[in-house]
Design brief:
Length: 255
């Protein structure tokens, strides 16, 4: 499986442990790519594609790098798309705009068309990464859009994806990282970010397993991989497995 993210720091968080998770769960041939710009919106991605800007930090991990991400600066979107015959290409909105439906339609349509025209594997399919709401006490400068309410932001993200992503029919998968994080907060508390919005190591682990479960359809009967540094208890691991499984089964459930 070869997966390319067209993303930002939230795709960096989500892919941190994905290689090790997938390998430990039996997926032996895996290549990951991430075209990264911090805080990048769909509009900026679409503009970069149209103007062929060398604007990305391109991170790539594979068996050749023993799962470590190597970085190449000043990369064009077209160059990342052409680097491998990707099986899955993911997209996401910038976190501050993730619950704002009016920020989606025009740039999304343009970006999807560009990717489908320039992908080198004609059978490659698209996945949408549904990201998470901020921590309740987050100082993120765009949290005001949601009246500094985690619940309001979470509901807004769900609404935006239902209204702007699902009806397009462009995406074969929905990766509900936001739902898994929100559910996991009922076990871990509101402590899954390192700065109020970027995930901490436990949060990254949860998001990584959400990507794996969503894209493979493999049930999580156990968590074969767990970073030693996390020191997760059996109860913690069971809660993560339950949160990820529930989010994949019912990504729009409010609770």
């Amino acid at each position: 499986m070869k997966i390319l993210a067209i993303g930002n720091s939230f795709s960096v968080d989500a892919m941190t442990y994905l290689y090790d998770i997938a390998r430990s769960e039996g997926l032996k041939e895996l290549t990951l790519g991430n075209l990264y710009i911090g805080g990048c919106t769909l509009q900026t991605h679409a503009d970069n594609a149209r103007e062929n800007r060398p604007a990305y930090q391109y991170f790539k991990a594979s068996a050749k790098t023993v799962g470590r991400f190597l970085e190449r600066p000043h990369t064009r979107l077209a160059e990342g798309l052409a680097d491998e015959k990707w099986d899955i290409i993911t997209m996401q909105q910038a976190s501050g705009s993730s619950g704002m439906p009016d920020t989606y339609a025009a740039p999304l349509s343009s970006l999807v068309a560009y990717v489908n025209e320039n992908k080198t594997n004609r059978n490659a399919r698209l996945a949408w990464h549904m990201t998470w709401a901020y921590q309740k006490d987050s100082a993120h400068e765009e949290f005001f859009k949601y009246r500094h309410s985690q619940e309001e932001m979470y509901r807004a993200i769900l609404h935006a994806v239902r209204q702007e992503i699902l009806p397009t029919g462009a995406f074969s998968w929905l990766i509900p990282s936001g739902g898994a994080i929100q559910r996991a907060r009922t076990h871990f508390g509101d402590t899954l970010t390192r700065d109020g919005y970027h995930l901490n190591e436990t949060g990254k682990f949860i998001a990584g397993y959400t990507w794996f479960a969503s894209l493979t359809g493999q049930p999580l009967t156990r968590l074969a991989f767990c970073p030693a540094a996390l020191a997760l208890s059996q109860s913690d691991r069971e809660a993560i497995g339950a949160a990820v499984s529930a989010a994949c089964a019912e990504p729009f459930l409010l609770f």
